[in-house]
Structures
1.
Amino acid sequence: MFVKVNRDEIIEGLQKSAGIIPAKTGAAFLRSIWLEAEGASLKIMSTDSSLEFCGEYPAQVETAGRVGVQGRAFCDLARNLPKGELIIKADAEGKNVLIEQGRRKYKLPANEPEWFQPFAPFPEGDTVFWSGDFLHEVIEKIGFCISEEDSMEAIACLYLKPEQDAAGKRIEVCGLNGHQFAMFTFVNDDIFGLLPREGALIQRKYLSELKKWLGADEIELALGEKRMFLRTGDHRETFSLPLSFYQYPNYQGFLSKLKDPTASRLTVNRLELIDTLERILIFNTESNRCTYFLFSPGEVVLYSQGQDVGTAQEPLAATYQGDLQRIAFPTKNLMEILSHYASEEVTLTLTGAEAPCGVSGVKDQNYNVIIMPMMIQEETYYAEENA
């Protein structure tokens, strides 16, 4: 292989490719970036045995061929080189990859060509185009609610489910981790037709690299029997990941509780609530990670105490309707949930002191998060005599 390429043409692809290479693995081919020169282009490929990345970039090919190189070292070298033309070639024995830029010369050991594993081809035909930044936004809104434990099977996955009822067709994107649930809905007939009736599951551990790959431009999406494929509109880059096939829990039960007319409802300024929670957090400890909410018609009092750090109590203007007197939420979790909303005010629908609580907002009509309250220990909750 002998190829000449502009460093700036390939650096982004190298960084994306190196990003999915495992930091530590015994398999040399998983530590590799594969370079394949053919026609008038250079392909850059890598895999961690689950994710697959392939980018194709313009190049002057003197001799076609494929070679593998230690991926992170090659990427670091290219990133630290200045702009300009690179010459990349394999030596006569195929044991080294030589990189030259002007009088700069580098040598990296080459990998055995038989280590290369063919990548799954992009399924042509039944594809749809989708906004890359919209998909990125959806992952941001849902990803934090997905379990980080792979052993949790379905609830360690992002769930995309096509739904149709009297209101029409929609896509429900869900995340669940046992104490939080998030759902974002949107309408897209093409995506609705592409998804299988049972939906599609993507493991959380793949979402980080998917977000890094996504840009603001339109992407082409396809589903194979076992994989999801994404491709840039110019066909320059392809990213694919495996689908999971677990049974996702039925979430309609706890969503229906939020429609209970007897549920209590608290409406409060979102940014003021976040600001208050940030101060309350100072008084949280490992044994008491909660903020206690004490309700009255015109305000809510937020309260916390820590054995070693003292107590905090702040009133906050609010609108409240209901019979519930107090409730406790994990402070950090509630702050994170609120950060994903755009509405000036949010409404907390409280179905019980230890029952699901839904968060909604006027500007977030298609977005709902449910958080489970924490059990209140009688000796720690706020009472009037403490005022």
2.
Amino acid sequence: MTNHEPSTPTPKGKTILIVDDDHTARYGMRRALEERYQVLEAESAAAARPVIASHRPDLLLLDIEMPEESGLDFLRELQAKGDAPAVIMITAYGSEKIAVEAMKRGAYDYLPKPFEVDELRLVVERATEHADLAEENRRLKRQLATEGQFGGLIGSARLMRELFESADRVAQADVTVLIEGESGTGKELLATEIHRRSNRGKGPFVPLNCAALPEHLIESELFGYEKGAFTGATSLKRGKFELAHRGTLFLDEIGDMSLATQAKLLRVLETRKVERLGGTASLDVDVRIISATNKDLGVEINKQTFRCSRSSSAECSRRNTGGPA
């Protein structure tokens, strides 16, 4: 790893990390930006991780094509964590399609090589301004949470404020979430607001009540089916996983799901692929799962009626308080 500080650091300047295996490219970008920003360098994703942990840069200039680990894979890792820095992808000529895919995955913008110095400076300036606005937005949301408001949920009691703060933090991380609480306490409202505040907030929010459907219909609702898959399947049906692609799938009352369906759901969570009933092709799905239950899943696991482990979910729970969970 190469780690360059500017010759005359600007105390109030933004910190930019350039991640590119090409030394010449890093040198050119650093020279173009170091008068205004604090510029750090790393030649790989592996080298960038400790720099991000120690310096918390405001912006990454991330090359897509790197030999050991691609910039796209590293971007996916960054976006799965809360408070990720803004990212501008650096692409080779002709890689615009990949760059657009990167933007769909959370990158702010991209620059194709070769680019003009003025173009680089302009895109960086816009990205840092966007990062400032995003941080101000997060600050205001945290303030509302501490004052007792979280989307459509309102509560000023200490436990409620703690719940809102926890939910706001977990919204920023692209992880699976389990919400526990009695019926009627606002679990779907909480799930909806977590989705809205996440980096998937512009994507679909697709709910499914697992207790409201007969067991034989849940799989067709989750995974969809091909035309002719069974009697009455007169046309293709897309399942909830497909409909929630690049968004959030909310599984309400997941504790009522059968063991057989749970096993298939776990398989999808592991592979991120679904197969329609009656189909042979696997379909890639990019979906965040938020689930909810009014049951004590620890008891259900001990009874061997529930397969999922609590350790696999980020829990945002409230027990026996009478408030939303």
3.
Amino acid sequence: MPPASSSPEPEDVRIPRDVLPSDGRFGSGPSKVPQRAVDALAAAAPTYLGTSHRRPGVRSVVGRIREGLASLFALPDGYEVLLGVGGSTLFWDAASFGLIERRSQHLVFGEFSSKFAKVTAAAPHLDAPEIIESAPGTHPLPHASDVDVYAFTHNETSTGVMMDIARPHDADGLVVVDATSGAGALRVDPHDFDVYYFAPQKAFASEGGLWLALCSPRAVERIERVGGSGRFAPASLSLPIALENSRLEQTYNTPALATLFLLAEQMEWMLRNGGLEWAASRSDRSSETVYAWAEAHRYATPFVAKPDERSHVTATIDFAEPVDAAAIARALRVNGVVDVEPYRKLGRNQLRIATFPAIEPEDLVALTRCIDYVIEALGWS
């Protein structure tokens, strides 16, 4: 519903400077990239950017990433960190060639969890997947089945739903987790997964175009066995090739060097401050700020009904009439507070707010004040 005729247009609202956050980037992906990391990249640029990814200067950064992620996630002996060019979307294709032997089970509860299921359903060399689906704003539960891969999603970015990662009881298949927006900000026990894959443009405050996968010994064995079975896979989608190159601290084809560097900087910032528990606690604090504000609000409410399913990195907030969330987002944008629009396909009167570790918790407090200011300025208070 548009603002009352006597109220200003959203683009005319000016939020006082003392109300605004210190940084107005609240996007769910790509995320805010901290200036300290950009400054570090600029300082390293003369000897780093524009150099070969197969030479020591870049391979040392890849080595930092692999070693640092093993430490951040407390990976047990035998687990390996793989990486490749292309992002999580490409990893779905790679997994269809190199991880799934015959059939997979998929928990589908939003746009991104549905996409991996569509990949495996379309793969002519695989049996039709088992799909367990629930309505947006909820997540389904797995069950032991005749499958060799269980495909979970740690955080559904489109809807703001997170799920705990645990192996299904009496299940033998690999647990393969899409952790793209959760990795580095949500707690996880590596004993509960075989592959935990993600891209670095979310909690790791980098750029896109790269995938990383934390792989258990069982997953490594599967990659090597399927790769040696004679099944065709394009080289750029070959997990055995990715495994071989990762062990050499490099990628098969040329990566974006800035992406690698920014990822390493954010990861090491987390480690210096206390590791995954520290980063997860920081996102806990930020998300609770948003949810508590919404629960106490006259017009706002958390979209996800069950508190234990509400994401700690992607808060989705619905608004009741007469408030128009799209108008709020437009007003915020002209004031430098950006990317809080809802996921486009969800089609709700909603704001979607990232609470990644790189975002200052105090800025989430400021954001809620900005939203209240806009609501009042547009005549809805």
